[in-house]
Every structure is written in C-alpha cells, then in structure tokens.
Design brief:
With 143 residues, the chain is an alpha+beta fold. Helices cover 40% and strands 22% of the residues. Strand 2 and strand 3 form a beta hairpin.
C-alpha cells in the first residue's frame, strides 16, 4: 500500500513539473511570434528607407502594434507593460495628426511607402491605399 502512495506521489510531482514546463513553452512561443512580427516590421521600414523614393511594401499585421517616431516598435502594447514585445528600427516614419505614435490594428493590411525620405503607412481600404499602392500616376496624392 505504501508503494502505491509513493507512485501516486511521484506521478503527481511529474505531472506538476510537466504542466509548469508546458506553460513556460507557451509563453516563450508567444514572445517569439511577437518578436518575429516586430523584426519584420523593423526590417520593412529599414529596407524602404535604404531603397529610397517610391518604394513600397505590403504588410499584414497579426498583433496590435505601435510605431513611435524615435525608432521604437511595440507589439501588443498594454498598460502594464508585461505583455508587450519591443524592438527598434532604423529610418524615419511619418506620423500625421500630431499623435505620439502610429497604431496598427491586428488583422489589417498596410502599405508601407517611401516618399520624401520618410516611410508613410496607409491602411487597406483608404483612398491613400489605392493612390499609393496600385497606381503610379497618383503618386503626388500620397501626402
């Protein structure tokens, strides 16, 4: 009877360790997915900046994102700061409307476009999206 109790105790101990390890792996996977998204956005901005005038890239965002003009990107920004994943970019991003940052919505597609040495970002479905991302004759309208 004692051996059965010891075996049950060992089983419960191993189950607890396994559950804890699985939880850590899920958190790490979530972090790595967000970090991958952040680095893709950073690479897109840097590539467009170095490529120069009239270069563009279409990018779909999987997580809520904030892009700051000082070179910071936050994926899944939260008020507590424990869920967000930061990274940096090299380049200049145009933020209109006097906002301190540019919000990108998860599940949306954006047109990243270089104009006047700055990367402008337009959301799918807007007039600027059509003007900047499909027809070169509308290039002057992308302001």
């Amino acid at each position: 009877m004692y051996a059965v109790g010891v075996m049950i105790g060992i089983f419960l101990l191993l189950s607890g360790i396994s559950f804890n390890r699985r939880s850590e792996l899920r958190k790490m996977d979530d972090y790595l997915q967000k970090r991958d998204e952040c680095l893709k956005i950073s690479n897109t901005i840097a590539s467009l900046t170095s490529s120069g005038f009239n270069t563009r890239s279409i990018f779909s965002v999987r997580y809520p994102t904030r892009i700051y003009p000082d070179g910071r990107i936050l994926i899944d920004p939260s008020t507590t700061g424990d869920q967000e994943t930061p990274c940096t970019y090299v380049g200049s991003v145009k933020i209109v409307g006097g906002s301190a940052y540019l919000d990108l919505t998860s599940g949306q597609t954006y047109c990243f476009f270089t104009l006047k040495d700055q990367v402008s970002i337009f959301e799918d479905g807007t007039y600027h999206w059509t003007a900047c991302c499909t027809l070169d004759e509308y290039l002057p309208l992308c302001k």
